[in-house]
Amino acid sequence: MTWLEQLKFWVLLTLTIPSTICSILIFIYFYQQQRKISIYHHLTLLLTIGSFLQLTINFPFIMAYYHRGTVIRASSSFCLWWNWWEYSINGLLLFVMAWGSIERHILVFNRAALATRRNKLLFHILPMVVVCFYPGIFYFAVMILNTCTNQWNYDAVFCQIPCYLTAQQALATYDFIGNVVFPVSAIAIANGSLIFRIVWQKRHHQIVWRRQYKLTRQLVLIAVVYMAFWFPLTINGLITTFAPTSVLTSIQVNFFFFLLFMIPDLLPFTLLACLSNFTTTIFKKQPRSIVPMH
Length: 294
Description:
Oligomer: single chain
Structural class: mainly alpha
Radius of gyration: 21 Å
Shape: globular
Mean pLDDT: 89
């Protein structure tokens, strides 16, 4: 085991334990506030569920690899499942955030559009269901049902990469552009334009500032976490797609892929910061009242 793998192990271990606890506290919060859950909370809840699944199911295998230097189970079926799970949950978190960023424009500027049950089904529930299930279905098709032969390396994290990324260039390009570049760009553009619209309309006194600012601030805080770790991988991936070099490929594999693990680790803390009355709800703390002395 190299010093870099040791460092990655301790970074993940240090962050994963408190992140898991934080996710559990968020679930408790939503359970206690279930009667007050609104359409504005659905994005937070889905991102928390996705992060929790990564932290509890996937990360133990990743940390075991960095601790041992080999995969925990040297078998083709395990490697295939491991890759499917990693790609699917990363895709779920990415597409849910992308759609949530686009939908926030509706919630901030045209909330009445989702007032009817039909519109809520068509423009809120249905898109959320699609972005949740699309990554798992896509990667099941290209990994599990694919006829190409995987050459697994049990001394590499995730046993290396699935065969379609090296043997089927058109499919690999679609995967990167459609499942990485597109949602990352959607997050950046949707949040950037949301900030612009908020500032522009505030100057013209056309919206209720405090409420709209709160909804925008919550989403932008989450988007910053995504962009900080997805953007380097996306830019470097675009460069290596059209002008590949061994140095850039090594950086992509050894560093930028690892940065993606930081999203499930840091996301629960960011989501928690966006919840109102969290301390009061979880710890039953009531605001202090000053009793006058007689």
